[in-house]
């Protein structure tokens, strides 16, 4: 039997459909969640320690991809996103292992979480050509007009991914943003970034255009303020601000107010902010949080 | 400092070349006697200069300087009077949210748009530059090219951007190129003449060096890299070669000639690399919009975005600068 040299992994960022190293050249060690009697944490891999300039590049990539993605037909977006679920299913073993390591779950529990994540992705993909019918419509007005309200994507959305639920939570915050034609910059869970890296690999090998989802790994407290204050970001999901080290989501909301970003708060308030439970089947609130309603008054002909 | 305008180009050329009659043979001998450009060395030096890190106050200074060096350019077949007026207004107020933003050096348009730009710019100090001599190909008779130049000057152009006859240059007919530049310079009157080499068509750095020397000998006030219609346009090594030429020209004659890279410079980072190169190769005297220009259009927006970023501390976005490509309707 021959001894094999360990292939140690150093993961990179996912920006504009490519996998660049952090502009800063930094990386950090990702450890497994503690389980059993083990006292020293187990090393999993190195992840890129993203910087504000990586976030900036990601916003540029997201902005560039946005018109094309929003311009694709809803049916096409649905198909493209469904394909992501197919790829995730194909990489199930890797996802299960990484979720298990990251969250310290049993094998059976990790299997269940990955299944739920894939199902969640499919669930949101299915909404692509249906949500406008639920959230928009024909308004009865007292005048000779057709009055139609239709939801449109906000644009570029910054997403602070949940810190604890590293895959199901991640899917539950990313899918509702992109299904409507937004593009996003995702700040992965600080301590549990590997499932996000797996998702990046799934996205890169599916049909999702580069730049639609950009994933930056690193310290939430370092990068989040730059995304919150970024003038070219139209909305920010602060879910991952709950339980993140050194992050005050109120400060982020204040910075976001500068250009009137749409803000989705984490559950609870202030220091008691908590990560929502992603287990139950969601409603459309995460989808509608990143939509603008356009209303058209069209004169009725005779 | 003397300028090239007050001397007869041919007489001076004879003197510099040390010949009694200016022939193509004499010019060829002189130009081919210039030392060759070390291609690898030139590119390595340019790459080395691009790695300099310019931060905080130096960066703020460089951004403002770069803005003041822009020749804000629109050279499209679809240019409308409205678009030219818009561009000229943009030059007067580059960033309405920050009135202290400096104005670009000039607005660069086709000859028939000079009057419109002039009306908007008035005596604001922002110059009007016009491309002439059958821009961008340069394929027209001498009489047409000179008429084109005079027309633009009469319409109020302060600066003329001419293209050299690359065909003649590549065929080795340097005397034709020399005469054309000298006659265009005469037609310019008081207007400053920028001579476009279109380096993307000259193939080698040696040719860039020769074309630069030839242009300076013939009385050009500026050597300019490109029309912006050919790829590659301005590159750092090409600009470096030109900067060496103007530096050496000053050592030889005591006259300063300006340099203008044009085309393909879109980001603040690029612009700052050029400024570093200007400083390191030609010297501080050229760090002035009288002697160095950027031919660009979208560069202004990126510089303004960087300026806003430094002023507010937050990254800015396209919603906060003017739309460079307004729709046609």
Architecture blueprint of SSEs:
The complex is a heterodimer of chains A (302) and B (329).
Chain A: E1 27-31, E2 43-48, H1 52-71, H2 74-90, H3 92-103, H4 107-126, H5 131-135, E3 137-138, E4 145-153, E5 156-160, H6 168-178, E6 183-187, H7 194-204, E7 213-216, H8 220-229, E8 235-237, H9 249-257, E9 262-264, H10 285-288, E10 291-299
Chain B: H1 9-17, H2 24-32, H3 39-49, H4 56-68, E1 70-73, H5 81-92, E2 106-110, H6 114-121, E3 127-132, H7 142-154, E4 159-163, H8 166-170, H9 174-188, E5 192-196, H10 205-217, E6 222-224, H11 236-253, E7 258-260, H12 268-282, E8 294-296, H13 298-312
Helix pairs in contact in B: 3-11, 4-12, 4-13, 5-6, 7-9, 10-11, 11-12
What's the quick description here?
The complex is a heterodimer of chains A (302) and B (329). Chain A is an alpha/beta fold.
Q: Please tally the β strands of chain A and state the result.
A: 10
β content of chain A, as a range?
15-25%
Number of structural units classed as domains of chain A: 1
CATH topology of chain B: TIM Barrel
CATH architectural category of chain A: 3-Layer(aba) Sandwich
Strand content of chain B: 5-15%
Name the structural class of chain A.
alpha/beta
CATH superfamily of chain A: Aldehyde Dehydrogenase, Chain A, domain 1
Features:
heterodimer; A: 302 residues; alpha/beta; five-stranded parallel beta sheet; 10 helices; 17% strand; globular; B: 329 residues; eight-stranded parallel beta sheet; 13 helices; 8 strands
What does this 3D model show about the protein?
The complex is a heterodimer of chains A (302) and B (329). Chain A is α/β, with parallel strands linked by helices and 302 residues long. Chain A has a single domain, classed as 3-Layer(aba) Sandwich (Aldehyde Dehydrogenase, Chain A, domain 1), CATH 3.40.605. Chain A is 39% helix and 17% strand. Chain A has helices spanning 52-71, 74-90, 92-103, 107-126, 131-135, 168-178, 194-204, 220-229, 249-257, 285-288; strands spanning 27-31, 43-48, 137-138, 145-153, 156-160, 183-187, 213-216, 235-237, 262-264, 291-299. Chain A has a five-stranded parallel sheet with strand order 7-6-5-8-9, with helices on both faces. In chain A, strands 3-4-10 form a three-stranded antiparallel sheet. A two-stranded antiparallel ribbon of chain A has the order 1-2. Chain A is globular, with a radius of gyration of 20 Å. The N and C termini of chain A lie far apart (87 Å). With 329 residues, chain B is an alpha/beta fold. Chain B has a single domain, classed as Aldolase class I (TIM Barrel). Helices cover 47% and strands 10% of the residues of chain B. Chain B contains 13 helices and eight strands. An eight-stranded parallel sheet of chain B has the order 7-6-5-4-3-2-1-8. In chain B, helix 5 (81-92) packs parallel to helix 6 (114-121) and helix 11 (236-253) packs parallel to helix 12 (268-282). The model of chain B is unreliable at 1-6 (pLDDT under 50). Chains A and B meet through helix 1 of A and loops of B.
């Amino acid at each position: 039997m021959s001894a094999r040299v360990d292939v140690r992994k150093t993961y990179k960022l996912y920006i504009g459909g490519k996998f660049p190293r952090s502009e800063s050249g930094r990386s950090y060690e990702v450890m497994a969640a503690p389980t059993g009697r083990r006292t020293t944490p187990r090393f999993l891999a190195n992840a890129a320690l993203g910087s504000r300039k990586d976030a900036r590049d990601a916003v540029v990539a997201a902005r560039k991809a946005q018109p094309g993605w929003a311009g694709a037909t809803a049916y096409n977006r649905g198909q493209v996103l469904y394909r992501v679920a197919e790829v995730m299913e194909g990489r199930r073993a890797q996802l299960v292992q990484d979720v298990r390591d990251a969250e310290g779950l049993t094998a059976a529990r990790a299997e269940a979480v990955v299944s739920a994540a894939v199902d969640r992705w499919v669930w949101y993909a299915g909404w692509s050509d249906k949500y406008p019918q639920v959230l928009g419509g024909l308004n009865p007005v007292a005048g000779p007009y057709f009055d139609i309200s239709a939801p449109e994507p906000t644009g570029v959305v910054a997403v602070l991914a949940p810190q604890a639920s590293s895959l199901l939570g991640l899917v539950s915050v990313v899918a509702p943003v992109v299904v409507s034609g937004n593009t996003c910059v995702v700040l992965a869970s600080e301590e549990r970034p590997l499932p996000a890296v797996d998702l990046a690999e799934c996205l890169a090998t599916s049909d999702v255009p580069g730049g639609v989802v950009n994933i930056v790994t690193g310290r939430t407290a370092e990068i989040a303020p730059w995304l919150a204050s970024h003038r070219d970001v139209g909305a920010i999901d602060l879910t991952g601000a709950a339980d993140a080290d050194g992050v005050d989501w109120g400060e982020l909301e204040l910075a976001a107010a500068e250009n009137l970003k749409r803000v989705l708060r984490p559950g609870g308030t202030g220091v008691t902010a908590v990560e929502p439970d992603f287990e139950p089947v969601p409603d459309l609130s995460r989808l509608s949080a990143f939509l603008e309603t356009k209303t058209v008054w069209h004169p009725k002909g005779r | 400092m003397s300028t090239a305008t007050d001397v007869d180009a041919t007489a001076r050329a004879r003197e510099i070349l040390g010949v009694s009659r200016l022939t193509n043979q004499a010019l060829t001998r002189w130009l081919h006697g210039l030392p060759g450009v070390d291609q690898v060395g030139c590119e390595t030096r340019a790459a080395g200069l691009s790695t300099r890190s310019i931060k905080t106050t130096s960066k703020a200074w460089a951004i403002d300087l770069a803005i003041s060096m822009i020749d804000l350019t629109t050279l499209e077949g679809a240019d409308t009077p409205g678009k030219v007026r818009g561009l000229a207004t943009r030059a007067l107020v580059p960033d309405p949210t920050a009135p202290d933003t400096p104005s670009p050096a000039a607005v660069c348009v086709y000859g028939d748009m000079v009057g419109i730009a002039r009306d908007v710019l008035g005596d604001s100090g922002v110059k009007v530059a016009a491309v002439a001599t059958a821009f961008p190909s340069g394929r027209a008779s001498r009489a047409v090219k000179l008429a084109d130049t005079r027309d633009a000057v009469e319409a109020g152009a302060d600066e003329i951007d001419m293209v050299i006859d690359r065909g003649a240059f590549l065929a080795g007919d340097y005397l034709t190129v020399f005469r054309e530049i000298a006659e265009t310079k005469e037609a310019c009157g008081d207007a400053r003449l920028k001579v476009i080499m279109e380096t993307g068509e000259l193939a080698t750095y040696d040719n860039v060096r020769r074309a630069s020397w030839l242009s300076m000998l013939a009385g050009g006030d500026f050597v300019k890299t490109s029309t912006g219609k050919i790829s590659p346009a301005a590159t750092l090594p090409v600009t470096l070669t030109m900067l060496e030429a103007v530096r050496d020209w000053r050592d030889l004659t005591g006259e300063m000639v300006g340099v203008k890279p044009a085309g393909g410079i879109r980001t603040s980072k690029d612009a700052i690399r050029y400024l570093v190169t200007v400083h390191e190769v030609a010297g501080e005297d050229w760090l002035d919009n009288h002697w160095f220009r950027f031919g660009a259009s979208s560069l202004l927006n990126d510089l303004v975005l960087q300026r806003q970023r430094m002023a507010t501390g937050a990254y800015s976005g396209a919603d906060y600068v003017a739309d460079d490509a307004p729709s046609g309707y």
